Amino acid sequence: MRDVVVTGIGLVTCLGRSKEAVGQRLRRMEHGFVRYQPFIEDERIPISVAAPVPEFDTTSTDPEDWTFPPEIRFRLEQLRGLSPNALYAHFALSRALADAGLEAEQVSDPRTGLYTASSGSAVMTHFHLDRMKKYGPLRCSPLGIVASTAGTLNFNLAAAYHVRGSTCGYVSACASSGHALGFAWDEIALNRQDRMLVVGAEDFTLETIVPFSSMRVLSLSEDPDSASRPFDRNRDGFVGTGGSVALILEAAEVAEKRGARVYAHFKGWGQATDGYHVAASHPDGEGLARAMHLAMDTAGWQPGEVDYVNAHATATPAGDISECRALRKVFGASGSPGISSTKALTGHALSLSSIMEASFCLLAMDQDFTPGSAHITELDPETEGLRILTESIPQAPTRVLSNSSGFGGVNVVLAMEKA
Amino acid sequence: MATTHLKEEELRESLKRCPEKAIEAAIAFNETRDPDLVPVIVMGIIERFVEPDVRPLLRENDDKARLLEDLGVDSLLMVEIVILVEETLSIHIENEELRTLRTVGDIKAYLDAKIKGLPIPSNKNILKFEEVAAVMPHQPPFLFLQEARINGTTAEGSYHISGNEAFLEGHFKDNPVFPASLMLEALGQLAVLLMLKTSGDAFGGPVKPDSIYFVSCDGVRCHKMCKPQDVLQMKVSLKKVHAPLAQFEGTILCHGSKVAKAEEISLTFELEREPEDSLRS
After folding, report:
1. Which domain holds residue B100?
2. Residue B74 to residue A77, Cβ atoms within 8 A
3. How far B227 CA lies from chain A's nearest CA (Å)?
4. B166 is a domain residue
5. B82 to chain A: closest CA residue
6. Percent helix / strand / coil, chain B, rounded to 5
7. Which residues on A lie below 8 Å from B83 (Cβ)?
8. Assigned domain for B142 exists
9. Do A139 and B17 touch (CB under 8 A)?
10. How distant is the alpha carbon of residue A201 from its chain centre?
C-alpha cells in the first residue's frame, strides 16, 4: 500500500473561501449563519436560520442570472450545464489545483482521477421537469439533465479539466464526500492512480434544505448565534448550508518528487453500516463505532493515539446521542480525545459535510489549532466521559478522525495525520 | 389586445438577452407575420447564444459564416437556438431539417421558406464520408476528406485530425504535426472529388476515376501547423482545363485562420469516353 498525502485545498464555504479566513473563523468560533429571508417570507416554512455561501447568488433557475466571483469566466454552453453546486465546485477545484501547484497537463493525465459527491440539484431538477411537463421535452434545454442529476459534478468537472483517469460520483447521503475521499485513497494506495481530485458540493437552495423540515430534523431557532448547538442539552436540530470543498490527494512519492507542499498524511478510512433504519442512526452508534475502529486499523493507530475527533454531530437530539455512545465505546478505555462538531459554526452541508470537515481538520493541523464546539451552554449528559472541546485549543492535533454518518445507517470515518 | 400584450411580455422574457432590435422585430412579427422580419430575429437569437468574441463576425451579416467552425455553435447550442426560434416564431422545426443547416445563410433560407410555406431548400450536394469514400480512388488510411460540398467548379471539404493517424507517431517524435505534404495531398484529393462529382461539364464529360494523377504544384505556402483535433477546412476551385490537364487553386483554413495555400495544383485525367471529334482526329 502506498502512502497518501493531501497537497491542495480549495474552499467555497459559508465561512469564506480563503484558507486563512476559514481557519481563523474556526479558531475564533465565528459562525456563518444569518436569518435567511426566503425562509422567513414563506409562513409555511418553520425555520429561519441558514448559512449561505458568501459571494454567490444562485437564487434564479437561469444560470445566466447568477452572480459569482469574477475569477472564472464560463462559456455559455458551460454555464447552462451547471447546477449551483457544480458552480461552487468549479471555484473550489480551481483553488485546490492552484494551491497544489498543478498544471493543466498534470490534471489531464491518465494517472489523475476525479471523485465527486453531491446529491444532484433539486432546484434544477424541479425547474427542468416542470418546464418539460408544461411545454414538452423538445422545448427543454438539452443541458437540463447535465445540470440536474447527481452526476453533475463529475460530468462538468471531468469535461472542463479534461480528466482522463478514474471518474466517479458517490451518493451516500451525508457520508457521500467521505466515500469519495475514501475510495480516492484506495485508488492511490492500490497504485491505480497517482493523484485524485476529490470534490464535494451541495446546492445552497431552499429546495435542498427545507424538505428536511418534514422530517422535523431542522432547528426552529430564530437566533443565528445559537441555532446550531451540537452536544448542547437544548439542541433542536440542524441548520442547512451548501458550498464546495476540493482536496488534492497524491501518492507521497509523487508529491515528494515534484516538491509539493504536504498538508497532512491521509492514513486511511473505515466504513460500516448500522443495518438498522432508513433515516435514524443506530441508538448505540454501533456502525459508527465499527467504522472508527476500521479507520484506525488501516492507519495503524491505537485509540489512545488519536488526539482529535471531528464529530458528525449535526445537533439533532437522537443523532448526537448515538455518536456520543459510539465515541464512548471506542475511546472509553483509553481516555477521550478532544472532540468537537464544527457544524456548530457551519451547519450541516449534507453531501459536502464530510470533505468540508476533513478540510477543517487539515486547516487545524496546518494552522496550529484545534477547533472548539461552539454554542454549548449546557452539555448533554450523554457526553459524560467525553472531552468535548467547548473552546478552541491553540495547538494542532496530530492524529485526527473525522466522522460522517448518513441515511441508511451509513458511517464513514477518515484518518489523517499531521505532516 | 390583452392577449397581444401578454404575448409581448412573454416574448420580452424569452428574448431578454437578445439585442433590442430582435425583440422589437419579434413583437412586430407576432402581429404581422412579415417574413422580412425573420432574419433580424434569428440573427439576434444566434447572437445571444454565441460567445462575445464571435459576435462581430455575426454582425457582418456574412451568410457564409459557418455555425460550428466560425461561430462555435455545437449541436447542443443549436438545440437551444432552435427552441427559442420555435417559441418566438411559433413554428415547428424537424430534427431532420436541422441536419443540413451548416451556415448562417442556410438558416435564413430555411426559415424564409418555412415562414412562406415554400419548399425547404435542401443541401443535398453535401457529401458525407460514406459517399466520399464510395467514389474516391483513395481509401483509408490514405483518404484525407471526411465531408465535402460540391458547388459547380468549387469544392469545400473538411478533415478532422483524430490524432490516431499512424504517421503522426513519427511526424514528429512526441510532437504530432499534420505533415504539410499531406495538406497538399488532401487538397489534391478534394480536387479529385470535384472532378468526379461535379454536375457541370467543365471537364468535357465524366472523368474516369482511375485515370487521375498528380502532375505538378506551384506556389505552395504553409502558414500554420495543424495538430490532432484540428479540422482542416479545405477549398479548391477549378482554374482552367486544358485536357489532359486540369488546374486548381486550393486553400486550407483552421479555426478561421489561413493554414496553407497552393496557387496551382495540376492533375492529369482521362474521360470515361473520349469525345467523338477527338477520336476522329
Report:
1. 2-116
2. yes
3. 17
4. yes
5. A139
6. 40, 20, 35
7. 138-141
8. yes
9. no
10. 7
| Count of domains forming chain A | 1
Q: Looking at the DSSP assignment, which residues form a beta bridge with residue A272?
A: A411
Residue that the C-alpha cell 480525545 belongs to: A337
A13 and A85 Cβ atoms separated by less than 8 Å = no
Q: Which of A308, A306, A322 is nearest to A389 (CA)?
A: A308
- Which of A73, A77, A78, A140 to mutate to test binding with chain B, by most B CBs within 10 Å of its CB? A77
What CATH number corresponds to the domain at position B272?
3.10.129.10
Q: What is the CATH number of the domain that holds B61?
A: 1.10.1200.10
Contact criterion met (CB < 8 Å) for B51 and A141: no
The answer to whether residues A244 and A201 touch, using CB atoms and an 8 Å cutoff, is yes
Global pTM reads 0.77
For residues B233-253, b (16+ Cβ closer than 10 Å) or e, as one string? bbbbbbeebeeeebbbbbbbb
Which ipTM did the prediction report?
Answer: 0.73
Chain A interface test: which of B79, B90, B94, B97 (most A C-beta within 10 Å): B79
Cell 424541479 belongs to: A126
CB A312 within 8 A of CB A318: no
Choosing among A64, A138, A141, which should be mutated to test the B contact, i.e. which has the most B CBs within 10 A? A138
Q: What is the pLDDT along chain A (419 residues), one digit of tens a residue?
A: 999 999 999 999 999 999 999 999 999 999 999 999 999 999 999 999 999 999 999 999 999 999 999 999 999 889 999 999 999 999 999 999 999 999 999 999 999 999 999 999 999 999 999 999 998 898 889 999 999 999 999 999 999 999 999 999 999 999 999 999 999 999 999 999 999 999 999 999 999 999 999 999 999 999 999 999 999 999 999 999 999 999 999 999 999 999 999 999 999 999 999 999 999 999 999 999 999 999 999 999 999 999 999 999 999 999 999 999 999 999 999 999 999 999 999 999 999 999 999 999 999 999 999 999 999 999 999 999 999 999 999 999 999 999 999 999 999 999 999 99
| Domain's final residue, options B116, B134, B150 | B116
- Is any Cβ of chain A less than 8 angstroms from the Cβ of B10? no
Residue B80 contacts A, CB cutoff 8 Å: yes
Question: Could A142 and B51 be called an inter-chain contact, meaning their C-beta atoms sit closer than 8 Å?
Answer: no
Per residue in B55-79, pLDDT (tens digit) is: 988 888 778 888 888 898 988 888 8
As annotated, the active-site residues of A are 174, 312, 348
